[in-house]
Specification:
By secondary structure, this protein is α+β, with helices and mostly antiparallel strands. The protein has 3 helices and 9 strands. Strands 1, 2, 3, 4, 5, 6, 7, 8 and 9 form a 9-stranded mixed β-sheet that branches.
Length: about 160
Amino acid sequence: MPAKPATPTIYRRRYIPDEKVCLRDDTIIFHKDNIMLTKWATLRPRRDFDSGLSCYFMDKGVKVSKFFLHGDLCYHYIDIIETQIDPASGEIVFNDLLIDIIIENNGFVKVVDLDQIPAALESGLITVEQSMYALKSCAWVLGVIYKGDFDELLGRFDHNSGRC
């Protein structure tokens, strides 16, 4: 059996649209236990942001990203995710469970794509268990935000020190 690589290969899997993309250009800054911090540039040119930092809280089913344009923070983007790890290869697949939360710089919170859950269930793209996990993860992170603890969560997101 080949040795597990020191740095895992990571993938993003979307259900809508159906795609699995290797994030080979993402730089893993920190990875320990259920937390991973990555730095990345957009896969395709965009006008609204060009790079970001993402902190995966794998045990919570949440990826918190900071989106930047020319070094300035645009907003925070939270993906609800499911993590699959292949113990033999160390490969990590982050399944996007459709629900997203956007936090604008003025503090406005917006939940988006919630309507995709029933559509994905009806078409068999996701399971009942995945949809329940997505809703629970969404409820957890919204609770953190509404209690005023989002800054504390972001405090673990310190890319200058190389840790989450």
